[in-house]
Amino acid sequence: MKEAVEKVINEIRPILQSDGGDIQLIGVDEKTGIVTVGLRGHCGSCPHAQMTLQAVVERRIKEVVPGVTAVERV
Predict the structure, then answer these.
(1) Entry pTM
(2) Which of 6, 14, 16, 43 minimizes the number of CB atoms within 10 Å of its CB?
(3) Helix (H) or strand (E) segment spanning residue 15
(4) CATH code for position 41
(5) Does the CA dihedral 35-62-42-50 come out positive or negative?
(6) What residue numbers bound the domain in which 39 lies?
(7) Going residue by residue through the chain (74 aa), what tens digit of pLDDT does each one get?
(8) Are strands 34-41 and 70-73 parallel, antiparallel or unpaired?
(9) Order of strands, edge to edge, in the sheet holding 21-29?
(10) What is the tally of structural domains in the chain?
């Protein structure tokens, strides 16, 4: 599961980097399906970061990786 999540994050990363941000995979809990990420750069302090996390990151990871139930940010 972790490798599949990393692959999706690497696909999303250029979108965030184009706005001066970045994303880092912190962990994947395969029992609960919760993925933990860190948003860096402009994404880390952006007031729209939670919306980006849910609308872009979480939605895409859930579409591609079976068993993912949520994406949380630290």
Answers:
(1) 0.91
(2) 14
(3) helix 2-17
(4) 3.30.300.130
(5) negative
(6) 2-73
(7) 999 999 999 999 998 999 899 999 999 999 999 999 999 988 888 788 888 888 889 999 999 999 999 999 98
(8) parallel
(9) 21-29, 34-41, 70-73
(10) 1
